[in-house]
# Entry
Amino acid sequence: MQKHIEINNPSPFIFSHKLKGICAALGFLGLIAFVFGLKMDASRTWQAFLMGFFFFTSMSLISLMFLALQHLTSAQWSVNIRRVFESLAAFLPYSAFLMIILALFGAPELYKWLDPEIVAHDALLKHKEPYLNNTFFLIRSAIFFIGWILFSRKLTGNSLKQDETGDDSLIKKLIPVSVGYIVFFTLSYSLFSVDLLMSLEPHWFSTIFGVYLFGGAMQSLMAAAILLILYICKKGLFNGLVTMDHIHDLGKYLLGFTVFWAYIAFSQYMLIWYANMPEETVFFMHRSVGSWMWVSLGLLFFKFIIPFLLLLPRWAKRTPKYLGTISAFIILTQFLDLYWLIYPNFDEHHANFSFYEVLIPCGMAGLFGFAMFQFLSKNSLVPMKDPRLKNSVAHEVVY
Amino acid sequence: MASDGLPIFTKLDGMMAVFTEEHQILEAARKIKEQGYTVFDAITPYPVHGLEEAVGVKRSWIPWVTFIAGATGCIFGTWLTWWTSAVSWPINVGGKPMWSLPAFVPIIFELTILFAALASVKIMFVACGLPRVNPPVVDEDLTSHKFGLFISSKDSKFNNEETKKALADLGAEKVHEVSEY
# Structure
């Protein structure tokens, strides 16, 4: 049936003084905590920095990955929410700046393999030196970020250009670009997670590590997209261009990747548990002693079991307040996951938690929010000249 | 068929209206619902968007069966692995504890899925009255290009003449009585 669809222009998003104030306050708090933290406990400050940095960088990268997937399959249902995902990817240039700070100043505090003294006395690290050394680390990071930023410019750039010209071939040209991004992203993100997180415990290795982080990041991306869409809907800016059916489908993605994350996490755990080899089990040994055991169990319950059961019913994905609460909760659990990956490498007995872990990621959230809202306020909230927009708005979730 | 060409029904199941256009069936279903009919059904050759809403189909209760069957499978799997590996015939595998949950999670998971899937299919067959060897042919065109709206005689508002008129007014191509639905 051809439902009668009214296409109204969305209202412009205004980056209000209040919002700007919140972003600036968060950023300022983070900066203060960072500066004070460096004086008090440099190692912990950089751990918190890494946690926030990895979370928001992953968010942007996975958002681009989702966009690439939509372009690659010429998906119609998601055309009207494309801009939301593009805004979540707007953080990448800032992220590159943070990466420079991390690589130049933070890395020596975090990574043992950067210390020639330790490497000289460690046979395994010596063996891994051709990969784990400062020069190659910097080269890799540079290649990754240049690649990601170039791809993001192309992927969002063509979409924005279409807003002016209405030329559909711009979007068709993105199909090969999307293929390129997906291949590049898969390889680079896997190595990126090895460089930044796995090498915190340089003796340990797990081949599924990149997929594990991808699962968690995809889950939190869906949660963030749902929150952002609900926020814009609440302000009434979409003017009926985004319906409950789109939010419902994003909710399904959220549920799906909740399960996917748990599946990958368990696959990683079970193989290591079964084989029981010391160089592999060290990772889980550190995370099953003392208070870390509680964090591990918390991850199982808060990141999988509880959201899974809460998201199962159909109404759960169609009730904005309920879905929004779960989404916010899932974003917190992604931070918990990164906390669980980073911190036991430095203190294997106690799960410490204080202002570093709260304020420094908050500061990055301020920066992320600034990039995102800036992007939204500069561009139309919905790509109005995409010829598939009407079909997208008419999208319906069947029973 | 009786000699005068009119069908003689030993029983009357309801009234069937046949429409030729998709938008007509949607419109008709909505109107019939507004008129206060509750026991009626739409038959289409392919899924029509928005028809569930127009007919007022409620959410299926089958997901509940799936959920309960899945939970049963999960509990059964836990019991099975515990009883076979730790109680009835304890085997030491690689020095691990007899009842090692990580090793049994795949089995518990598979049994959850197996129970949930088989129960859903089974209950779906029961709920739809499948398999049926001789389904009644209400109208030949309904499986290829036409759309049917059926009002059951069980409906409290059902009245042979009035219902027939109501359906004809909605632009049905033909309206006829159905003896077996």
